[in-house]
Amino acid sequence: MMTLADRKELEGAARRLSRQFAGVFSLETVEECVMDSYERLAATATVTGFLTILAERFALERPQALGQAGHKLESTVPEVLFVCVHNAGRSQMAAVLLDQLAHGAVHVRSAGSDPADQLNPAVIEAMSELGLDLGKEFPKPLTDEVVQAADVVITMGCGDACPLYPGKRYLDWELEDPAGQPLATVRQIRDDIQERVKALLAEVAPATIPS
């Protein structure tokens, strides 16, 4: 349940975010987004101490996506969205790998149709072996605007949960779920995702691939 202190922190977050979207969205619209982000995260959280901080981080992406979907903001690079059930493993690995390989040539988001309350520790460890830190990432709920903003939507075992919009490219990657798997298996899933991400990058941003 949102406390008075939480509400005050969220109102402050909305004021900060609204300055970034001045002339595009009103303070009221941004505040509504921040409050909704808090409520969505609170629905699955088992630890609530950092919810206001995570809500601000989650809300930061949503007005950007909403502006792109409504053609109020222009995207200069391809938009890719990875979606799995819990946003605690496969989609997080794919997003970080693509972001690292693309060097800014692709904008990446990830989400879960039924997000977990935290990332899979084995996934964090497997990615750290590649020098990639997932320690600050967190599972995020799937929202309509991030789907609308995407050029390519890649689902991983949750295709039916993702809304369909004309003009979007949808792909479904059949990948083993890392939940409950030993580290050795998570490494194999990671390596499979990495190869798929490289192939995707060659399609959506071929200029980033070394000749």
Features:
211 residues, alpha/beta, Helicase, Ruva Protein, domain 3, Rossmann fold, 2 domains, four-stranded parallel beta sheet, 48% helix
What do you see in this structure?
It is a single chain. The protein is α/β, with parallel strands linked by helices and 211 residues long. The protein is built from seven helices and four strands. The protein folds into two domains: 1-74, Corynebacterium glutamicum thioredoxin-dependent arsenate reductase, N-terminal domain (Helicase, Ruva Protein, domain 3), CATH 1.10.8; 76-206, Rossmann fold (3-Layer(aba) Sandwich). Strands 2-1-3-4 form a four-stranded parallel sheet. The longest helix has 22 residues, at 183-204.
Element string (H = helix, E = strand): HHHEHEHHEEH
Shape: globular
Q: What Rg do the Cα atoms give?
A: 17 Å
At the third CATH level, what is the topology name of the largest domain?
A: Rossmann fold
- According to DSSP, the number of beta strands is 4
Provide the β-strand percentage band.
5-15%
CATH superfamily of the largest domain: Response regulator
The helicity comes to 40-55%
Uncertain segments are none
